[in-house]
Design goal:
Length: 716
């Protein structure tokens, strides 16, 4: 204690310079740990959130109430569309509908809350407090397990602050497999790539308890914690256990865990790959394919591609063949243009599993590129005879076209319409619907401000994205693993920071037409009135009788024509057709400004209102055309700005601006040099302070009591 007080007394003597240095080091630590950029991205995603709620509501409205698969997909779609934005209005508005989720659907739905608050690393316990296990209170283990998983998703790869809490939750789970499952996945995510031996031991205890559900998550989490360490001890223990256990789920979890341990090891992983690929158990061979994917991801290594292609056509297990083709996508992430060519023949295979694998391979390799060859290969596969191939094709299309605009790629409109028609089609298979729902949410992921990219802007591999994608594709066996998709999202932003790491108010110029990279237009509500235009089916007999009546009418009219002319002055009721002719005449007169009888004026007036409306519509239609002609050839973007990957080459700082970037790269988070440091700086007001959770909640639109979501505390 004495030493401390001496230190405190000595503190003032540390001079201002020392204090300044301490501050600098703190900032540096936050930047290197990623904490600063997480806070900035969180602010950007919240501020620029442009989610089209009508798309979600239309999906929800188009589906059958009783189908749990599509219900689950819709809850997940909402989480994908709002990943990282902290906006949960859809949940609060649809509580009753959400309460239909039970058991594992409830687990998954609670984890979705974590996706929406991804990056709230300082307020995560506050966000999830409704659902987390609490001493003395027993709620549904599914919502508790889901909440622990959600904490992992919020802290993915940034878990220093939450590991202790999750470890305790795992120890206190009382051997409840659901809570253990959630806690293991949460620990794996938060402790990703830390190589933390203590965590590994905790997870190994769960694995060796030989419970299928908990063991699967433990095997996967052991791989996540030891990600890329190539730890021989871990691999030996896991492989030995995979041969001992009878549970398929555990074998699969362990097989994937071993693949993750070999992440980025290239030739260093060959021994294990060889061992797994020759194993008699197809699940371990499946793990071997993913070991090639993680070890050689983004290398385009020829021998890896050759091996995967060989397995894709020769293995006896459909699962292994499907995995082999899919893994080609990981190996080719840095050369996406090669992937459609490599899998083009496999995409025509007689085996639907191989076709499905080839769709996802293209989706993974070409994610976010909008590559035309990829779209050309995937589009026909959305009409495949097998339901899950259609599902894969739609998911892959959405990955390729994420954030692409209709102006740049007219295919986007067709693809959106395709997803919508599949969702609304009552006779469509549920597997394909599932794919269409998730695919339509991927197109608008993260409030339309994120893209899927497995490589960084400089061309390096993004570890968490590759791992996230490898585990996302396991949704085939176990849907809650789909939430790993949130790891693959990167905000497409340009955020300038001054020396205090604050965002100054400033503009950037993009030398492109505004429509080229703008947000997609919001869906309009009036589509509901459209069905009035649907032509009614006319039977052939009806058509014949109508035609007969028309001819009779014409003959009758010819006879009466003279009589009508004579009696016109006496205002006798004429035939409806004649009436119409008269009104149109009076209409013309009205336009010419002629005087006419009051009755005619009334009719003409009514008619004219309609005409005016039509004219208005025509004018409205003409206006956009005029706008197009006069559309400026640059766009002004204010800090923090949304800049798409294809747009970044066109962005510049305007001449004479107060700030200039320190480096030439205008993309992502950019440091700015103040050329007029003596003037007062205008700072962008922060709306979601990552460090002040309580205030943030008050900011949200009508503050509901933290939603008991589908997850009332005492079960349903």
């Amino acid at each position: 204690g004495g030493g401390d007080s001496e230190m405190k007394e000595a503190a003032p003597a540390l001079s201002d310079e020392e204090k300044r240095q301490a501050e600098v080091f703190t900032k540096l630590r936050q930047i290197l740990s990623g904490e600063t950029s997480i806070g900035i991205h969180l602010e950007f995603l919240y501020r620029n959130n442009k989610t089209d709620m009508l798309i979600l509501n239309n999906i929800k409205g188009a589906l059958e109430v009783r189908n749990s698969v599509t219900h689950q997909a819709t809850v997940f779609a909402n989480a994908v569309m709002h990943t990282g934005t902290t906006v949960d209005t859809f949940i609060t508005e649809n509580l009753e509908w959400l309460k239909r989720a039970t058991n594992w659907a409830k687990f998954s739905a609670t984890a979705c809350v974590g996706m929406m608050h991804k990056g709230c690393i300082n307020s995560s316990l506050n966000v999830m407090k409704e659902y987390l296990p609490q001493p003395g209170m027993h709620s549904s283990p599914y919502s508790e397990g889901g909440a622990l998983y959600a904490l992992g998703l919020i802290h993915a790869h940034q878990g220093a602050g939450i590991l202790k809490y999750l470890s305790n939750a795992l120890r206190n789970s009382g051997n409840n497999e659901t809570i253990q499952h959630g806690a293991c996945l949460g620990l794996g995510l938060a402790g990703m790539a830390t190589g933390n031996e203590e965590l590994y031991e905790d997870l190994r205890v769960v694995l060796f308890s030989d419970n299928a559900v908990a063991g699967e998550a433990a095997g996967l989490a052991m791989g996540l914690v030891m990600l890329g360490t190539a730890s021989e001890r871990a691999v030996e223990e896991m492989l030995a256990y995979a041969h001992e256990t009878q549970h398929e789920k555990i074998i699969r979890g362990v097989a994937l865990g071993m693949a993750l341990i070999m992440y980025g090891r290239e030739e260093g992983a060959d021994t294990l790959i060889e061992q797994l690929s020759r194993d008699k158990d197809p699940i371990l061979r499946y793990g071997g394919m993913f070991a090639i994917a993680t070890a050689y991801s983004g290398t385009g290594n020829n021998s890896a591609i050759r091996r995967l292609l060989h397995v894709a056509v020769s293995d006896v297990s459909d699962d292994v063949r499907r995995a082999a083709v899919m893994c080609l996508g990981f190996v080719l992430t840095t050369i996406p243009e090669q992937c459609p060519r490599v899998v083009s023949l496999l995409a025509e295979s007689y085996n639907p599993h191989v076709r499905y694998g080839s769709t996802l391979a293209v989706g993974i390799a070409c994610a976010g590129t909008g590559l035309q060859e990829a779209v050309d290969l995937l589009e026909p596969m959305t009409k495949d005879a097998t339901d899950f191939v259609r599902q894969g094709a739609m998911l892959a299309l959405s990955m390729v076209l994420i954030q692409d605009t209709e102006v740049r790629n007219p295919k986007v409109k067709e693809v959106r319409a395709l997803f919508e028609s599949v969702i609304k089609d009552k006779h469509e298979d549920v597997m394909a619907k599932f794919g269409a729902i998730i695919a339509s949410s991927i197109l608008d992921a993260g409030g339309r401000n994120v893209t899927i990219s497995l490589t960084t802007k400089a061309g390096h591999k993004r570890m968490s994205a590759i791992v996230g994608m490898a585990i996302f594709v396991q949704y085939w066996y176990w849907f809650p693993l789909a939430h790993f998709l949130s790891l693959t999202f990167t905000p497409t932003c340009l955020i300038g920071l001054n020396k205090d790491l604050k965002m100054p108010q400033m503009d950037f110029i993009s030398n492109t037409r505004p429509s080229l990279f703008d947000y997609p237009p919001m869906t309009e509500v009036k589509t509901k009135a459209a069905p009035t235009k649907v032509a009614t089916a006319i039977l052939s007999t009806t058509a014949k009788t109508q035609a007969r009546k028309k001819t009779e009418k014409k003959e009758g009219e010819d006879d009466k024509m003279e009589v009508v002319k004579e009696d016109a002055a006496e205002d006798k009721p004429a035939k409806p057709d004649a009436d119409k002719k008269e009104t149109s005449k009076t209409d013309k007169k009205a336009a010419a400004g002629d005087k006419k009888p009051a009755a005619g004026a009334k009719e003409g007036g009514d008619k004219k209102e309609g005409d005016d409306a039509k004219d208005g519509e025509e004018k409205k239609e003409e206006e956009p055309e005029k706008k197009d002609k006069k559309e400026p050839n640059f766009t002004t973007l204010s800090n923090p700005a949304r800049v798409l990957t294809a747009q970044k080459k066109a962005v510049v700082v305007p001449a004479g601006a107060r700030y200039e970037p320190v480096s030439n790269k205008l993309w992502g988070v950019v440091m700015l040099k103040d050329l007029r440091p003596d003037d007062e700086a205008q700072i962008v007001e922060v709306t979601v302070p990552a460090n002040a959770p309580a205030e943030k909640e008050a900011d949200e639109p009508p503050p509901p009591p933290p939603p008991p979501l589908l997850l009332p505390r005492h079960g349903l």
